[in-house]
């Protein structure tokens, strides 16, 4: 990762979460249409989290998209949850978005009983080709996917098994996904930061006051492992969509 280059993300701030989601979805739809026009298909990486709900719902309603030419991946999945569990990220994506665009292709992360093998399989499935669009959020601790601090910004792997830190597990409770931190799985398969950033465009939807400090750190801290979100500044085409609660400026 080239830390010597520090790009300023393009930032837009919106009065509400739905307005943020509509703006992010409009931009994402334009980028996906462009990819289909240029290469006959689009490869899109998705995050699964409440912060993404408004963006994905608006994207599903975007006009003029040939979803049959879109291939979706997602960036993380819990280890140890049944695939059909309501908290599973693949299940959440189907419920929130994919069921509305059934023509699209979706490649789920499936940790099963051998998450290490599942991570290696997902590396092969993603391949080396860049994504066209990555739709992501930002954790309360600044994580990208489940790359909690200190994160490896030069990870040679494309996907791996990771232990979730206490802040990440608490966030899952605070967002209503689990009743207690002890209910949250301790591990996940996650796509690594270098693989996430191997894309033409990054679209970050980051609403809510709990994310304000993470946004501040992402924009102002030195690029490095203690604040994983700072890795976004190594990419030349990042758009950061905030609401008035998450904007620290």
What does this structure look like?
This protein is α/β, with parallel strands linked by helices and about 250 residues long. Helix 1 (about 15-40) packs across helix 2 (about 55-60). It is globular, with a radius of gyration of 17 Å. The protein has 7 helices and 10 strands. It has helices spanning about 15-40, 55-60, 90-95, 115-125, 165-175, 195, 210-220, and strands at about 10-15, 40-45, 70-75, 75-80, 105, 130-135, 160-165, 185-190, 200-205, 240-245. The mean pLDDT is about 95. It has a 7-stranded parallel sheet, covered by helices on one side. A 3-stranded antiparallel sheet has the order 4-8-7.
| Assembly annotation | single chain
Specify the overall morphology.
globular
Structural class: alpha/beta
| Radius of gyration of CA atoms, rounded to a whole number | 17 Å
Number of helices: 7
The share of residues in extended strands comes to 15-25%
Low-confidence stretches: none
Q: Largest sheet, order of strands side by side?
A: 1-10-9-6-2-3-5
């Amino acid at each position: 990762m080239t830390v010597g280059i520090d790009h300023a993300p393009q930032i837009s701030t919106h009065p509400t979460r739905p307005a943020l989601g509509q703006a992010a979805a409009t931009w994402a739809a334009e980028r996906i249409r462009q990819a289909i026009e240029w290469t006959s298909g689009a490869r899109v990486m998705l995050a699964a989290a409440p912060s993404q709900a408004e963006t994905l719902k608006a994207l599903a309603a975007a006009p003029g998209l040939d979803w049959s030419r879109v291939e979706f991946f997602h960036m993380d999945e819990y280890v140890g949850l049944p695939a059909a569990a309501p908290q599973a990220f693949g299940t959440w994506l189907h419920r929130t978005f994919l069921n509305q665009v059934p023509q699209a292709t979706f490649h789920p992360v499936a940790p099963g009983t051998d998450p290490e093998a599942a991570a290696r399989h997902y590396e092969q499935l993603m391949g080396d080709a860049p994504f066209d669009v990555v739709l992501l959020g930002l954790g309360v601790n600044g994580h990208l996917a489940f790359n909690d601090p200190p994160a490896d910004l030069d990870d040679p792997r494309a996907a791996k098994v990771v232990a979730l830190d206490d802040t990440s597990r608490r966030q899952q409770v605070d967002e209503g996904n689990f009743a207690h931190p002890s209910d949250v799985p301790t591990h996940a398969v996650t796509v690594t930061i270098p693989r996430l950033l191997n894309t033409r465009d990054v679209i970050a939807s980051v609403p809510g006051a709990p994310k304000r400090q993470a946004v501040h750190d992402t924009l102002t801290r030195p690029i490095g492992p203690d604040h994983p979100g700072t890795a976004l500044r190594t990419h030349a085409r990042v758009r950061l969509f905030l609401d008035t609660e998450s904007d620290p400026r």
